[in-house]
Amino acid sequence: MAIETYKWPIQLSSGPIEYAQAIRTARFGDGYEQAADNGINSTAIQVPMVYVGKEAEVNEIRAFLLAHTVKAFIITPPGEEKGLYRVVADSVRKGMINSNAAELTFTIKRAYGVYA
To answer: What is the value of pTM for the model shown?
Structure first.
């Protein structure tokens, strides 16, 4: 099964890109502490995105995003590397600007794996 690619224009939302690092620590009685990464992909990246356009295209993107909360897709977010990402569950929001235009906001999260 081929991995799909996000094909529409992309833009960062007003929120910042978030980096969450998973580390393990061990503290000893004398105050000494050791820290280590928790695995080879220990930094989680979340990117808030927004798309503004005609309602028909917003609906097409929304359908793509809702289908990719568990299934990863390829995208190059602004300021980040091309890679596999998934849509954060319950992050997709659609707002109407007027009768023809809408705004779609969503958050994607880095998914680690192999793609061609």
So the answer is: 0.82
Domain encompassing residue 46: 11-110
Summarised one tens digit per residue, pLDDT across range 7-49 is 998 888 878 888 888 888 899 988 899 888 777 777 889 999 9
Contact of 46 with 88, CB cutoff 8 Å: yes
Q: Report if residue 77 sits inside a domain.
A: yes
DSSP sequence for 8-74: S--EE-SSPPEEEE-EEEEE-TTS-EEEEESSS--EEEEEEEEEEEEHHHHHHHHHHHHTTSSS-EE
